[in-house]
Design goal:
It contains ten helices and ten strands. With 254 residues, the protein is of the alpha/beta class. The N and C termini lie far apart (58 Å). Helix 1 runs parallel beside helix 10. The protein is globular, with a radius of gyration of 20 Å. A five-stranded parallel sheet has the order 5-4-3-10-9. The chain has a three-stranded parallel sheet with strand order 6-7-8.
Length: 254
């Protein structure tokens, strides 16, 4: 069980809601994936029609609005305030994009927007990179968790900087860390969970799958298995072979 701003979440899978063929397919994916938290774009809600709004009213998952597509502090803060009115929640996933090709966050604008929103009572889930300095600045701004990317949004590359993410996990040992973006396969999600991350947020890998509902179920199982493996204690990697059967006690032929 994870804790986000005092709220418990049984599932360690967070699911996005964009890009699905229909609200019905999205509903099936939510049912099979069993996320406690789903992310919703204000733009998506506005264009999704009654079917999408009815779905949000029916699901038991906590709605996490996001500022997807925002490129400036003003745009992100304005979108967050609008989302608070529309969805009646002070939770916000904060995205402030700084690079058009990689969709990498703008670190300076991200920290400024996070400080403004935290001061205004928002519970901010910041989409960030594995940069330790940026992470520290976001925590100082009032964030209580961090959401580092695995790889660029929608790239399906998995964990592109494993060593950097391991360092981040070790440095922020007591801070909830959620891998957000770049996850393309259940094995990627399992790898992140085996490293000790608290949860996975993904969207495209499920929405664009041949069978989104089945893929959501696969990710749910992978996230659970990865977390269980980390909790059980993975054996360390070795550079040399190590015999699993000891030499002592073997039969000797004379």
């Amino acid at each position: 069980m994870s804790m986000y701003y005092g709220t418990a979440a049984k599932s360690r899978l967070l699911l996005g809601t964009a890009g699905y063929p229909s609200p019905q397919v999205l509903a099936q994916a939510i049912t099979r994936g069993q996320p406690d938290i789903i992310t919703v774009s204000l733009r998506r809600e506005g264009s999704g029609g009654a079917g999408f709004r009815d779905l949000l009213a029916q699901v038991e998952a906590h709605v996490l609005p996001n500022t997807a597509g925002c490129h400036t502090v003003k745009e992100a803060v304005t979108t967050a305030h609008m989302a608070r009115e529309v969805f009646a929640t002070d939770w916000i996933k904060l995205e402030v994009i700084g690079h058009a090709d990689t969709l990498q966050p703008d670190p300076f604008a991200l920290v400024e927007a996070a400080r403004i929103l935290c001061d205004d009572g928002f519970k901010v889930f910041p989409y960030t990179t594995e940069d330790l300095v940026l992470g520290e600045k976001l925590l100082q701004a009032g964030c209580e968790l961090l959401m580092p990317w695995g790889a660029p949004i929608g790239s399906a590359q998995g964990l592109r900087n494993v060593e950097g993410l391991k360092t981040m996990r070790n440095w922020f040992a007591d801070i909830p860390l959620i891998i957000d973006a770049g996850i393309g396969a259940p094995s990627h999600a399992m790898h992140a969970m085996e490293l000790g991350f608290d949860a996975i947020l993904l969207n495209t890998a499920v929405a664009k799958a041949g069978d989104p509902a089945a893929m959501a179920a696969a990710f749910r199982q992978a996230v659970g298995a990865g977390h269980a493996a980390h909790a059980a204690g993975l054996m360390p990697r070795r550079d040399m072979a190590s015999a699993s059967t000891p030499a002592f006690g073997l039969a000797q032929l004379l």
